[in-house]
Design a protein that fits this description.
19% helix; 4-stranded antiparallel sheet; globular; alpha+beta; 4 helices
Length: 280
């Protein structure tokens, strides 16, 4: 009968530590099995987030007004698997906007004389959804109400990135009405009453799927292909007089690393040189 490694060490009077691969044949087989299991588990685990330098373009369309578009270059924490982004984190404050729309745009409007929009983004976190659209925002489940919803299939990237800021509605050139924008990109409803009128703003989370405004019925969709540009969308319903409903889009495009750019330049130069040789 084969003695255990611990007993052999005791009998020989040695005090060397016992290492599994120095044990019996059965012990070595068990050790190899556990090592194989551990390696497999590590291989199947989700990859860690990496900082990716990206051009981030935020566009906000409010009714028939000119779109608000801003682009910044920022480090974004991303996770990608199987040719898709599975998680994206955007730091707060990288988007900062202040726009005063010309009063001439409001000449035909009966109630408003102007609009000023000031906002910045709060932190954004987008993950792969396992069960479709978040509860309370699924177009299929909600039908025609509320005014905004999203269709977010299983496996789609989605999440929240609210705005911190305010839309100032100038009423008849007499006073301003402040409408908080925090529901945009997050979800919910904000209602501000002024006199016999009201401004109602509804928002929803972001999605790579379909964003929909149910009244009137407009839709737009996002895209998610790594490392191609990632495009997320969110619907916005702002009902005042007139209607300023529209969409916000978030487009993230990876910035080529310097080494990659130099390699592309070198390859282009080599191709041009070979072309000159052939013509000779």
């Amino acid at each position: 009968m084969e003695r255990s490694p611990a007993r052999r060490a005791e009998a020989s009077g040695t005090s060397r530590p016992y290492l599994p691969w120095q044990g019996t044949a059965s012990t070595r087989r068990r050790t190899k099995g556990w090592l194989a299991f551990a390696v497999g588990a590590i291989a199947l685990a989700a990859p860690p987030a990496r900082a990716t330098l990206m051009n981030l373009t935020y566009a906000l369309q409010m009714g028939a007004l000119p779109p608000i578009v801003t682009t910044v270059t920022v480090n974004v924490a991303t996770v990608s698997m199987a040719g898709r982004y599975t998680q994206v984190s955007i730091p707060a404050g990288v988007i900062a906007v202040g726009v005063v729309f010309p009063t001439s745009l409001f000449t035909p409007m009966p109630l408003l004389s102007g609009l000023t929009v000031v906002f910045s983004n709060q932190a954004g976190l987008f993950k792969t959804a396992m069960g479709g659209a978040p509860s309370g925002f699924d177009c299929a489940a909600l039908g025609a109400a509320p005014d905004v919803c999203i269709e977010d299939g299983p496996g789609n990237l989605g999440g929240t990135m609210p705005l911190g800021g305010t839309a100032f509605l100038n009423v008849l050139g007499l006073f301003n009405v402040a409408v908080p924008l925090s529901v945009i990109g997050k979800g919910g409803t904000t209602t501000v009453i002024f006199g016999a009128h009201q401004a109602r703003l509804q928002g929803a989370p972001w999605t790579e799927g379909t964003a929909q405004i149910t009244a009137p019925n407009f839709v737009t969709t996002g895209t998610n292909v790594f490392p191609a540009p990632l495009r997320l969308v969110t619907p916005i319903s702002m009902v005042v007089n007139p209607d300023f409903s529209g969409f916000a889009t978030l487009t993230l495009t990876p910035v080529p690393e310097p080494g990659v750019g130099l390699l592309l330049v070198a390859l282009a130069a080599l191709a041009a040189r070979e072309g000159v040789k052939r013509r000779r």
